[in-house]
Amino acid sequence: MKNVNLALAALLLCGTVSAKESDFAEKVYVDAVKQVAEMQDNRITFEQNVTINQGTIQIKADKVVVTRSGEKGAEVMTAYGKPATFFQILDNGKPVNAHGNSIRYELKNRLVTITGNAQLKQEDSVVKGELIRYDINKQKMIAESKGGQQQVRTEFLPAQVENFDKPADQKQQGK
User: Fold this and answer.
1) CA atoms of 136 and 111, how far apart (whole Å)
2) For a 10 Å CB count at each end of the chain, is N or C smaller?
3) Ranges of the chain whose pLDDT falls below 70
4) Contact 110, 97 (CB under 8 A)
């Protein structure tokens, strides 16, 4: 039964991560010390202290490269840093924090890919791996290790596992 609860807790971490829909109707703002636009390549590079904001989504990095395939809304933002960070408040009001050496955010596909020392944290649960993909539309997360040499690690607090099947009002009261 304990293994079933752990499996269900893993699904809870991955499956209930529902992005704030209003974020995607918001404008995207990028602030940086330097910006280089390469019009022929449909690419803009932002450098030094880069911050991207879209609603509750916030990405921070040393460098961000934005490319557009020509299709409206098909921008891809790739953030690089030591680490680059991603933050969002979900529809349930809970924050999600992530970081890695690079974060790729595909606006149209609503796909976030974190690579290199990737970590995704929601409340006190943490998933770590070499690569983490989060499909916002499908509410699906995939974490992978590096060439089978390492393993993906997920950490839960015992209280979260024990309270998994309790309604939210009972969790707050500690029943």
Assistant:
1) 6
2) N
3) 1-21, 70, 72-73, 147-149, 156-175
4) no
Using DSSP's 3-state secondary structure scheme, residue 110 falls into: coil
- Distance, C-alpha 130 to centroid of its chain: 14
Joined together, the tokens standing for residue 76 give: 């891809």
CA 31 to chain centre: 20
Q: Residue 78 is inside which H or E element, if any? A: strand 76-89
> Burial of 154 by CB count in 10 Å (0-12 exposed, 13-18 middle, 19+ buried)?
middle
Token look-up 């499908």 returns 138
Q: Tell the burial category of 36 from Cβ atoms under 10 Å away from its Cβ (0-12, 13-18, 19+).
A: exposed
Query: What separation in angstroms does the CA of 174 have from each of 27, 123, 126, 161, 163?
Result: 40, 16, 22, 13, 9
3-state SS assignment for residue 173: helix
Give the fold, CATH level 3, of 2-165. lipopolysaccharide transport protein A fold (2.60.450)
Residue in 171, 141, 145, 142 with CA at minimum distance from that of residue 159: 171
Question: For the segment 118-145, what is each residue's pLDDT rounded down to a tens digit?
Answer: 988 887 788 888 889 988 778 788 888 8
139 φψ region: left (φ > 0), alpha (ψ -120 to 50), beta (else): left
Q: What is the token pair recorded at 2?
A: 């304990």
